[in-house]
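tokens incoming
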């Protein structure tokens, strides 16, 4: 993607329905995919208004128009549901700012796609869990996301990244990477390869339940990291789910599982000292309690029973993806050191191993809060 110049930013700004005098413009957030800017406008006697302006990454999201159709459809539906429940739609969901031609996106002179959102005031997204209660609040918010979208027809959404959580396909891709071994690395990671292939059945488990109708297809977020929740600065409650780029049809247990994989780990995702890596059962219990509460009775008994498997499968899938990328020469995930993707793979597989050791505890926790 080409460099963003001041001239391009000016062109983009002038094509959105922004009001007032621009008094600040700068990079914003810690995301690695889209280019995000915070703009501050002053409007006479009304004070200052903040907006988010983003250039969408068309190398990751190949169909930005379909992506925005998903976001507009889901946020419009969420606004209606939030109003029905007496909430504040200006703070409890993303609000797309249209262009001057009343479109949800703008295509600039270089062919890049841009979108803009109203800034959610007096709320913060955190990259790490600083307080356990914040992790609980994120669980309630992600669960409430499921609750509010329960009536939305999931099969009307576009698949923004094809096969994103198709674990079976991820295992097939790993096997191809092992066979081709284009970087000559397979000989050095035989333990990791053996670990992945010994658990190959995990790749089929949830997909089979979906096929036979035991798990329903739902609108899912598919990137349930802790930092995709806005925490209200005053109340400490999780008020809004953000980063809806990967909203598409999926499984609620995958959303639960990805959040556990990321948030209940005792170590960072690329920790090299595997003795530090474990799945914290207190955090697992806290998230389970909050997620089930947030879902408000919309989960089926089979979905609730499958929550631990969602955590295990999502962690396994992520490890498989890191291992595949390592074998292929680190072409997908950004790396910052030699063997970075291999370190990431090892932490995920260590988490899977730890979950296996604590399997009965995880099942008991889920039973307790169901």
């Amino acid at each position: 993607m080409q460099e963003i110049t001041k001239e391009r930013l000016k062109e983009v700004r002038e094509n959105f329905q922004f009001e007032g005098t621009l008094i600040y413009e700068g990079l914003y957030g810690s995301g690695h995919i889209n280019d995000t800017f915070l703009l501050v406008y002053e409007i006479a006697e009304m004070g200052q208004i903040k907006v988010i302006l983003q250039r969408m990454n068309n190398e990751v999201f190949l169909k930005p128009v379909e992506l925005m159709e998903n976001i507009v459809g889901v946020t419009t539906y969420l606004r209606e549901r939030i109003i029905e429940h007496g909430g504040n739609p200006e703070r409890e969901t993303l609000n797309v700012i249209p262009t001057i031609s009343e479109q949800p996106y703008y295509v600039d002179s270089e062919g890049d796609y841009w979108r803009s959102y109203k800034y959610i005031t007096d709320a913060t997204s955190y990259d790490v869990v600083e307080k356990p209660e914040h992790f609980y609040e994120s669980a309630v918010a992600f669960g409430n996301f499921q609750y509010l979208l329960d009536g939305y027809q999931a099969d009307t959404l576009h698949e923004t990244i094809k096969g994103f959580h198709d674990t079976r396909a991820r295992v097939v891709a790993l096997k191809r990477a092992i066979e081709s071994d284009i970087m000559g690395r397979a000989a050095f990671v035989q333990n990791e390869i053996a670990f992945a292939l010994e658990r190959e059945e995990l790749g089929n488990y949830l997909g089979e339940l979906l096929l036979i109708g035991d798990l329903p297809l739902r609108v899912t977020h598919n990137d349930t990291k802790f930092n995709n929740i806005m925490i209200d600065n005053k109340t400490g409650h999780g008020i809004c789910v953000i980063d809806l780029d990967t909203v598409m049809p999926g499984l609620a247990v995958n959303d639960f599982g990805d959040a556990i994989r990321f948030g209940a780990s005792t170590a960072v995702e690329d920790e090299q000292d595997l003795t530090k890596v474990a799945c914290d059962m207190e955090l697992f219990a806290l998230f389970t309690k909050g997620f089930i509460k947030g879902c408000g009775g919309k989960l089926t008994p089979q979905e609730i029973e499958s929550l631990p498997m969602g955590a295990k499968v999502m962690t396994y899938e992520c490890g498989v993806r890191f291992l595949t990328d390592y074998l292929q020469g680190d072409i997908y995930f950004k790396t910052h050191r030699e063997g970075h993707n291999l370190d990431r793979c090892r932490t995920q597989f260590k988490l899977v191993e730890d979950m296996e050791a604590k399997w009965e505890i995880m099942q008991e926790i889920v039973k307790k809060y169901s």
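note: The mean pLDDT is 94.
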